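Hello Y.,

Per our agreement to keep a running log of every chain we model this quarter, I'm adding this entry. I've kept the format consistent with earlier entries: sequence first, then predicted structure.
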Amino acid sequence: MTVSQPDSTSEPAIPPVEVRIAATAVQISAVRAVAADLAMREDFDLDAIADLKLAVDEVCSTLVRLAAPGVVLSCEFRPGAGEITVRAGVLSASEALPRKDSFGWQVLSTLADSVQASVEPAQGGFHLVRIELAKRSNSVVGG
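Predicted structure for the entry above:
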C-alpha cells in the first residue's frame, strides 16, 4: 500500500471564511476587519487592501438597507491566487435588486474587479439578495 504525502513545496489553499452578523450597520466593521486580514494574508498591497475594505463596506451597507428586520447578513470570503471573492447575502422583504444607478454601486464597481447582484425567492415570502465581488491584488498581472 502506498500513502502519498502532500507536496510540501506548495502552500495550502486558504479555506473559505464565512462571517455572519446581525444585519445592522454597527456590525459592519467586523466584516471589514476580516476582509483586511485576508487581503494581507494574500499579499495585497495597501491600496488593494483599502479598496477591498471599502468595497466590502459598500456591499454590507447596501444589503443592510435591503434587509428584513431581525435577519442575519452572511458574508463569505474565498481567498486564493492573488484574488479574494466575496459573496454576501441577506433576506429581504423586497425582490428588488440593489440599484445599479446609485452612487454606492458606482463606487463599488470602481473598487472591485467584478461585481454582480442577484435575487432569488426564499422561504417565508422573503427574497435572498446577494452581491458577489472579486478583488485582485495589484501585484497580479492585469490587476
